[in-house]
Structure formats: C-alpha cells, structure tokens
Amino acid sequence: MRVLGIEGTAWCASAALHDTETDETRIESNPYEPESGGIHPREAAEHMADAIPEVVDTVLSDAAAEPGDRGIDAVAFSRGPGLGPCLRVVGTAARSLAGALDVPLVGVNHMVAHLEVGRHRSGFENPVCLNASGANAHLLGYHDGRYRILGETMDAGVGNAIDKFTRHVGWSHPGGPKVEAAAVEADGGALLDLPYVVKGMDFSFSGISSAANDAYDDGEPIEEVCFALQEHVFGMLTEVSERALSLTGADELVLGGGVGQNDRLREMLDTMCAARDAEFYAPESKFLRDNAGMIAILGAKMAAAGDTLQIPESSIDPNFRPDEVPVTWRSDASSVGYGGTSDRGSREVESGSDDPAHGSRESYRDRRGAEAVVEIVEEGRVDEASRVDEGIDGGVASRLVVKRRVPKRYRHPELDRSIRRDRTVSEARLTSEARRAGVPTPLVHDVDVPNATLTLQHVGDHDLAADLDGVSKATEKRGAAEGENSRRPEGWARTVGEHLARLHSAGMVHGDPTTRNVRVGDRRLNADRTGREGVDQAAADVFLIDFGLGYHSGHVEDHAMDLHVFEGSVVATAAEPEPLIEAFESGYGEYGNREVLDRLRDVRGRGRYQ
C-alpha cells in the first residue's frame, strides 16, 4: 500500500508518500517563517495555499518516476488539532486529491500521529509517549481502545512558552533552537530561580515565561536565562514522564513533537529512563517536527483497518483531542504497562482465581516510584505500650516504610537538591497535619532532611491502582461475598472523595492524589487507630500517602485541581472509569464544598485542545 500524507496544522506545509511494503517514507516540506514575532494564522494559511500544491506535486512526480505501475492507494491528511485556517486548506486539498485519484480519504489526528510514528519506528509495543510540540505538551498511553491523556499542560504549549520569551527579547520564530544555542554558552554559575510547577502528571508553564522575561529585564545575561529556562521546563517534562511510567508500570517511552529535537530534553529523558531500566526512543528530526511522513504512516494503518472518511464526514477539527480517537488499527487488547514487552506491568489475575493478590498485586508492589526508593522494615511485634497508645491489636507485626528521595541525575544538581529537600519537609508536615484533621495517613516516625529521607508507618495492603482494571472484578466479587461494600473499587473511590473533602476543609492540598498514592486494605492493622481520630470505620482501610507536592491553600481552584489529578489517574488506568468518578464526586460532594465540583468542570476544559 502507498499512502499520500498531507500536513499543515500550523507552520509547515508538507506532503509525504509512505510505502508499507518497503517501509520507506519520502517527505517534502516547505515551512512558514514569519519575518518577526510568532505565527500569524492568516499569513500561515496563505502560505499553505501556495505551498501545499507544490509539495504534493513534488512527491507525486517522484512517485510517478519510480519503476513499476504502482499508484496511490489512499490520501491521509491532518484533520486537527491546529489552526483552523491552515487546516481548511489542507482538508480541501486532501478531498480534491482523494476524489481525483478515486481512493479512500483518511483523517488523522496530528498528535496521535506524533505518537504512532515513534511506536512504528521503535518497535515498542505499549509505550508512554511524551508529545512536546509548539502548541501542546502531554503524555499519552494506550488503554481500553483509546490513547488516554495521562497528563498535560494546563495552559501554554511547551514551544509557545519558550517562544513567548524569545519574542520578548526580539528573536524570530522559531525560538527554541535559539534558546538551545544560547544555553550552551552559559557559564554554569548559580542557577536562576524560575517557577517549577508539577501537579500530579499535569504541569503549568504560565508563570515561567514571565519570570524569564523579568530576569532578562533585570539584567541577567541572556545565556543564563536560556539555560535556566531549559533546565526548569525540561525538568518538569522529564519528571511527569517518569510519573507516568510509574503510574502505568510501563518500561518504554517515546518522544514526539518539534521541541523533541532539543538535545538537552532528549538527554534528560534518556538519563531518566536508563535509571529506571526503561527504554527510550526519539525518532530522527524529520519525524519529530511537523511533517507529513507521520500522517502517511498512521494513515496507512488506519486505511488498512478500514478507518476511512466519506467526504461529508471529513470536516476539520481545530480542537481534536487525541483521546477522542478510536484506535481502530491496533488489534491487541493490552494496555500501556499491562502488556507488550514488559513483564513488570502485568495485571492479569490467574485463571479461575478470585484472589486479586495472585500475580498482579506483587507486580504493583515491585513498581518503582517516580521520586523515591522505598524499603519496608519489619520491626517485630508491637509492645504493650505501643498497642495502647496506637490502638493496635496485640501481636500484630509493626512495619515501617523508609522512603528516600533519590537524586535525579537528569536534573540540574542545585534544582534537584532544592526539590528533594522541600518535598521531604512538605510531606512530613502535611502527612501529620492531615492525620490530625481526620484524614487517614501514615504516622511519621522520623524526618532526615539532609538525606531527604522519611520513616513512616506502613499502611494498606496495596495501591488503589491495583484494583482498577482486571483485578477489580475479582475484588468486587470478594467484597460482595463478604458484605463489605467499602472494599469494592467504587466504595474506595467514594472514600477518597471524602478524604480529600476533609483535607480541603482543613486548608490543605494534596498535590498528587493519583491512584498510586492511595493505599487500601489491611483494615485489621489500621482501622482502630484511624477510627480514634474521627474517621468512619468503614473508611478506615483507605489511606492517602505521598504529600510531597502538597501545600496549604483554601482556594477553590487548587482544590479542584486535586480532584482533576485523581480523576485523570482513574481515566488513565481503569477499565470502566465512569462509575468510579461518579462515586468519587459523590463522596466529595457529601463532605466538601460544592463550588469545588463546579470549578472542576472549568479545570477539565483547560486542557490545551478542549
């Protein structure tokens, strides 16, 4: 099969021919380069109108000159997301060509194409993908027939955030390569302090461009500002990528998007993956920047699956989100981290077994966290004094968790020390304060700030994430048989909502309430001590852990972001997320501020292409 691809979402007019028999892809591109400032939609569309016919003609002429009598089997085009005026030019050209050639028309999601070209060329089965482009930045993982958004920017795209600074200093578009070149010339002195905002697996660039502008205006050398800008922006992207690998248990990461051409970003991601024994792949530059090759490659997969469009159905969509695309071209039923090449992420329950502890639970225990190395220490039997003080049944073994935030070699040493120190202190303080507010959390036994190490009470039997896919059915069956509704995933999700409501009422934000940071089960050990602090006994086997990204705030916006992070982790990992989210919001609504739920609707709409 030979597929003609056409790309033109924003700045690059491109055509390509992909041959599935030889796996060869011929790409012809003509980028739009504004004389000053950023991309002007009208000028970009005018460029597309002039350049698209030229690049298409070049590719078709080259194809006609090849020996043999092979024609074009399908026409694929970038349907969105992107600039509406540019997309309309591309869509019109694709429809005309498909009609003239009498071949099927395929509408491709531009961001999914960035992922699929990396998966295609790497040979990875189920990778997490970091898309780092001009107008966007997000993490994707395949789950239950779609690419789910694991995390994303809540405001500007990564390239746009960098370009905002370069426009301020008078540099032309694109600004990324100029920042990269200037950063190399930095003298390596003290790192400038810029905002570093990570919320679960979401992140924000809204303040960093302004802070970089201010630093430049205050007389800081431009090389030092560029160096700090890269270290902070790419540090955030690498951290959330590691968090996504940790949440899913995946051991493959692919990079997509034009910003992925930056050597420092690729170095950070490669260093992070090597430390986790994960594989990392970045396609060559021609497949990272906007290009029609990725459109043709994914278009060929979609055409082979029969996923084509009739002309009346082929309208463009400037806000086309990747999680809206049915993944028709993949025949495997496995999901990111739960199949493919990785054995560590397997979540299958043994055939005929109702016990979800078989197989999957152990794999969850073995998963590496994104920040810390955790050691579980057995302290023997609890003495009588501790039993009375803590309300523990006599004879139960006491277990402690020693959690050490390890240095991250991908981050600048100065930034890394600051992050590990601050998060260790925040976790110790907020874990204790939340417990006093009636939220079940571990007891804090010791805090070693210089070594970024905490010693905590061991709570729960496993992470909530372990019960949100195939395991959940076995758990529900067991819970129903025991008459313990609170042990079912919906009951646990509701309880998490109740816990966050209490936390927010006390003026605290968790910051990272993913399903990996909720511990469930083991009520025999923990129910009494939790119940003594005012928490319902039925909720005593659900604990919130890892408050490292937490802080004090009474703002509705910050509380809504907590809810968004939890729901995002549910959507990314649960086979049937809707009942869990409904239960979670019901629990929050019973004890929390209804304004937070109203604001949550606004937060959901802030993803870059909502």
Which key phrases capture this entry?
single chain, 610 residues, alpha+beta, Nucleotidyltransferase, domain 5, Transferase(Phosphotransferase), domain 1, 3 domains, five-stranded mixed beta sheet, 44% helix, serine/threonine-protein kinase, metalloendopeptidase activity, multifunctional enzyme, EC 2.7.11.1
Could you walk me through the main structural features you see in this protein, from its secondary elements to its overall organization?
By secondary structure, the chain is α+β, with helices and mostly antiparallel strands. The chain has three domains: 2-121 and 288-324, Nucleotidyltransferase, domain 5; 122-280, ATPase, nucleotide binding domain (Nucleotidyltransferase, domain 5), CATH 3.30.420; 357-604, Transferase(Phosphotransferase), domain 1 (Orthogonal Bundle). It is built from 19 helices and 21 strands. The strands form six sheets. The chain has a five-stranded mixed beta sheet with strand order 3-2-1-4-5, sandwiched between helices. Strands 8-7-6-11-12 form a five-stranded mixed beta sheet, with helices on both faces. A hairpin with a 4-residue loop joins β2 and β3 (24-31). Residues 20-39, 312-369 are annotated as: Disordered. ATP binds at residue 403. The active site is at 512 (proton acceptor).
